[in-house]
Design a protein that fits this description.
The complex is a heterodimer of chains A (171) and B (77).
Chain A lengths: L8 H14 L5 H17 L10 H24 L12 H27 L2 H12 L4 H8 L3 H19 L6
Helix pairs in contact in A: 1-2, 1-4, 2-3, 4-7, 5-7
Chain B lengths: L7 H13 L5 H13 L1 H20 L6 H11 L1
Classes of the chains: A mainly alpha (171), B mainly alpha (77).
């Protein structure tokens, strides 16, 4: 039986939920709001958690509802469907771009899944260096590391990530 | 790192990481090039590493900053 541990939610699931939201709501600030609304809604309904699913699955289910709510609000404000203007792609091109975007979103979530499985400190160092593009010196100061330790941590994270992703995503 | 591999392989692996972030200097890049000519294991690692960099760039992931994480912690406490 799975149990909830709200104290670890931000640390363990924020980046996953945030990227999940960003792939559906293309606005960083809005995505942050939706993630915080998700955590609050989860806290409010934590007594309803039956333990059948994992904490993460349960949070994602709440997040999905929050994303739907977000689009409902937008649509009710507009009152009508958006009409596409300035159309200049051919249908083929547009379908190809949409497919690529979808594949990249799936890829992003697969990477997030794997980052959730590796050593949390290594994952954090990897995120700072790779996703936030921080300078080596800044990451070293922040995480209290020597440069050579940083590269060992990056190496372990990248190796674990490659193993976790397997061959499926090789292009 | 793993046992039973030539002593220089772990160093090449770290140089390969630096290379992915454009932080390997000319001599480092040359060492990798020469080493992977004869070391199949490191050649594979270097190729996998390049692929990983490429998919990481395609995935366009974002990450919350420490301040944003603190903000979130505050909201739910």
């Amino acid at each position: 039986m799975n149990q909830l541990d709200p104290d670890t939610w931000v640390k363990n699931y924020s980046d996953y939920l945030f990227n999940y939201t960003l792939s559906r709501v293309d606005d960083r600030e809005k995505a942050k709001d939706i993630v915080s609304e998700t955590f609050l809604a989860a806290l409010r309904s934590k007594d309803n958690f039956k333990g059948d699913s994992t904490e993460k699955t349960w949070l994602v289910a709440i997040l999905k509802r929050k994303i739907i709510d977000h689009y409902r609000k937008i649509n009710s404000k507009k009152g009508k469907a958006e009409v596409k203007k300035g159309y200049h792609f051919s249908e083929d091109e547009e379908a190809k771009n949409a497919l690529e975007t979808l594949e990249n979103h799936e890829l992003g979530m697969a990477i997030e899944d794997c980052l959730g499985k590796i050593n949390p400190r290594q994952a954090r160092i990897f995120r700072l260096k790779t996703i936030q593009n921080m300078d080596t010196e800044v990451v070293c100061n922040k995480m209290n590391l020597t440069p050579s330790n940083l590269w060992v941590n990056i190496h372990r994270a990248r190796k674990a990530l490659t193993q976790c992703l397997g061959n499926e995503w090789k292009r | 790192m793993e046992d039973n591999i030539p002593r220089s392989c772990p160093e090449i692996a770290l140089l390969s990481e630096k290379k992915q972030y454009q932080e390997a200097n000319f001599w480092g890049r040359l060492r990798i090039k020469m080493h992977i000519l004869y070391c199949e294991r490191c050649r594979k690692y270097e190729n996998d590493n390049k692929q990983l960099s490429s998919i990481l760039s395609d995935a366009k992931l974002d990450s919350l900053t420490d301040d944003e994480l603190k903000e979130l912690e505050k909201i739910i406490k």
